């Protein structure tokens, strides 16, 4: 069939010649695709086919020339608040670059769900909520890549980083913090850090408070509302951002340009 349609999230748009554009989009059925968008600067379709717009894309494919062009785009989501927030723009750019570099983590459908959920939530959030939303997106994406921590107890003593005080019905966090052990792919509590053979090598992802570790656990194992209700300090947000930025870059195996150029904004 030469004509087809698909659900699509626009990931990027680049100039192609004087008036055309090369559009990269993500489809849950076909993954990352590219097509040409023809038309001059006054084309209404060009204003619709913009980064992070999501909807139904219509494609005409030339099977002889092995090319495809966009004939229409029915937008359902615009994410208009991104234009008013430098942080949101950079956060969306970061998510997009990660998807492209990792080639959807091998699962276009799951990747499409993850990034769309993140962009929709980011659109409705203020900057502080957006920062924690970015942390949750990165941590969930690491599960898609197969590099997320599997056990949230200390890898050495097997003690959890929190306990429940049943009398007062509150969560109590373990005294001290934790570091991430790359060799063991897990967290080591402050009581057991001295047992590591190469302490300095395994601290390069930074230290986390016990509550920060529990936040990642809640993000991974609980309903989204659980981690969203957890209150983090500015220092804990900073710790988690540095940790997830380093982890995702290490997992993909290459430098992420958005992190390098936008680190002061993110």
Describe what this molecule looks like in 3D.
The protein has helices at residues 44-48, 86-102, 108-124, 127-145, 210-221, 224-229, 234-252, 257-262, and strands spanning 3-16, 20-27, 31-37, 54-62, 67-77, 162-165, 170-173, 177-181, 186-189, 207-209. It is an alpha+beta fold. A hairpin with a 4-residue loop joins strand 8 and strand 9 (186-189).
List keywords for this structure.
single chain; 266 residues; alpha+beta; three-stranded antiparallel sheet; 8 helices; 10 strands; elongated
Tell me the structural class. alpha+beta
Strand content: 25-35%
Which whole number gives the mean pLDDT? 91
Uncertain segments of ≥5 residues (pLDDT<50)? none
Based on Cα principal axes, name the global outline.
elongated
Order of helices and strands: EEEHEEHHHEEEEEHHHH
Helix tally equals: 8
How large, in whole angstroms, is the Cα Rg? 21 Å
- Kindly state the number of beta strands: 10
Instruction: Please give the order of strands in the largest beta sheet.
Output: 3-2-1-4-5
Q: In whole angstroms, how far apart are the ends?
A: 44 Å
Largest sheet: 5 strands, antiparallel
Q: Helical proportion?
A: 25-40%
């Amino acid at each position: 069939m030469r004509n087809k349609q698909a659900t699509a999230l626009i990931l990027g748009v680049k100039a192609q010649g004087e008036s055309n554009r090369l559009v990269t989009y993500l489809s849950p059925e076909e993954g990352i695709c590219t097509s040409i968008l023809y038309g001059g600067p006054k084309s209404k379709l060009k204003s619709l086919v913009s980064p992070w717009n999501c909807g139904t894309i219509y494609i005409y494919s030339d099977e002889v020339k092995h090319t495809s062009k966009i004939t229409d785009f029915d937008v359902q989501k615009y994410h208009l608040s991104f234009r008013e927030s430098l942080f949101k723009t950079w956060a969306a750019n970061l998510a997009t670059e990660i998807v492209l570099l990792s080639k959807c983590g091998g699962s276009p459908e799951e990747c499409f769900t993850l990034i769309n959920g993140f962009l929709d939530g980011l659109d409705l959030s203020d900057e502080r909520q957006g920062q924690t939303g970015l942390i949750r997106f990165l941590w969930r994406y690491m599960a898609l890549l197969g590099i997320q921590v599997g056990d949230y107890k200390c890898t050495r003593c097997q003690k959890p980083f929190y306990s429940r005080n049943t009398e007062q019905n509150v969560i109590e966090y373990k005294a001290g913090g934790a570091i991430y052990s790359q060799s063991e792919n897990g967290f080591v509590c402050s009581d057991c850090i001295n047992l590591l053979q190469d302490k300095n090598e395994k601290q390069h992802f930074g230290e986390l408070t016990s509550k920060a570790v529990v936040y990642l656990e809640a993000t991974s194992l609980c309903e989204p509302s659980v981690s969203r209700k957890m209150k983090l300090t500015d220092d804990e947000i900073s710790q988690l951002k540095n940790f997830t930025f380093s982890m995702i870059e290490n997992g993909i195996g290459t430098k992420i340009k958005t992190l390098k150029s936008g680190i002061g904004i993110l």
